[in-house]
Design goal:
By secondary structure, the protein is mainly beta. It contains three helices and 14 strands.
């Protein structure tokens, strides 16, 4: 019943969620903006500084929103559109992720990664896939996901971080909101712990932290809600178009 209610709610435009991703101590902050144009699609716009290169990544989730089936990697183009340069596809039968990426200025990369389990979260997607799951299911019990991450410095390109396990810890208050807390644990090559707080009424992530980095330049991870704004495709397009608005021509 809760899943049906959540699905009905997303017949209307989803909000646009503005987050700051950083190390746990707040260093290396980056804006991470998430939007669900439809129930099963996710768009993410990530930027450190206006007029500089910004990521624009999209995903198609499974019908049950447990994990993603297809990602498109890209950057924000001068007109605000997604300049695509790669894809990542799940083969649910073989339990593999297949990446085909031609990054700007770099060689084409084609690799496969065997998942240890499903469902999975792509950790460098900044919990945008987890956010969709939480908004739909609003779990009142423990859950777990396999946790791969793209790590370009490694020859294999992917790292298997292990299993992310969330223990339901109940309601509390965080950042002025009524939330549900989950205590996080990663069982894998490098054990880690953290905490996840999700809005009690709507399920979206209010804050999350974990002792493992999800990008090479980081030492650990924190995602904190900055603000919400009313969502629509036109509002989203205005955001991405604003990235290069008034910037010098290149």
């Amino acid at each position: 019943m809760l899943s049906l209610i959540a699905a009905a709610a997303l017949a209307a435009p989803s909000p646009i969620y503005h987050y700051i991703r950083s190390n746990r101590d707040g260093s290396e902050p980056e804006h991470v903006v998430q939007y669900r144009p439809t129930r099963t699609t996710v768009s993410v716009y990530k930027w450190v500084e206006k007029c500089k290169t910004a990521a624009y990544v999209t995903a198609v989730m499974s019908d049950d929103l447990l994990d993603a089936r297809f990602f498109v990697a890209g950057k924000v183009a001068r007109d605000g559109s997604q300049a695509r340069f790669g894809t990542l596809a799940l083969d649910p039968r073989l339990m593999t992720l297949s990446a085909d990426v031609a990054p700007p200025g770099g060689p084409r990369i084609q690799v496969k990664h065997m998942l240890r389990a499903r469902p999975f979260l792509l950790y460098d997607f900044d919990f945008a896939d987890l956010n969709s799951f939480l908004q739909e299911h609003r779990p009142k019990s423990d859950f777990s996901f396999a946790l791969p991450v793209i790590w370009p410095a490694d020859d294999a390109v992917f790292r298997d971080l292990g299993m992310l396990r969330a223990r339901y810890a109940g309601p509390e208050e965080r950042l002025g909101r009524q939330v549900v807390r989950y205590d996080l644990r990663v069982d894998g090559p490098t054990a880690s712990t953290g905490t996840l707080w999700a809005d009690a009424a709507q399920g979206f992530i209010v804050e999350a932290d974990l002792g493992l980095p999800n990008h090479m330049e980081y030492k650990d991870f924190r995602l904190r809600l900055e603000k919400l704004e009313a969502g629509s495709q036109s509002a989203w397009d205005a955001l991405t178009k604003s990235h290069y608005a008034g910037c010098p021509a290149t």
